[in-house]
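Review form for a predicted model. The reviewer records the input and the model, then writes brief findings.
Reviewer: anonymous (R2)
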Amino acid sequence: MDLEASKKLCIERLLIPFEGTGPTLPNGSFKAYKDPGSPSGLPITIAWGLTYDDKGNSIKLGDVWSYEKAVRVKAIVLDQFAWKVIELCPTLIDEKDNKFAAVLSFAYNVGTRNLENSTLRKKILAKDWIGASQEFKKWNKASGKVMNGLTRRREAEAKLFLE
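Model under review:
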């Protein structure tokens, strides 16, 4: 697995198409918004699903970031997720970039704690690739409600995982 190639694949095939950006200003800057999949609107998000900045501070309504800042913070945050995925799923190190990219997208979306406690992780550690691919699809709900966007994302992750 090539970490940089995996992150690029994750960004291009999964994060950009599925994360969306929320509201943007005419100058291309991003404006913070409430999470549309959560009844409470939390967490507050900016750009491509970012919920905290490069210093670990939570995003607040009213925050505005330039495109350049969003790209810089996205790279930092994605690196943090990537290293945690490697820690949780070391069996992916010897696999193709597509497997790691799919799991990275999943962890970025649901959180590393959910990955850590998931059957998906157990199947990855057992190198049960078919079983693992089927586990992605179970994570298509927000607050107990099936979300079409999450269903499409999980299908795309499962497909990339098996390529």
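Findings: The two ends are 14 Å apart (CA to CA).
Further findings: The longest strand covers residues 30-31.
Recommendation: see findings above.
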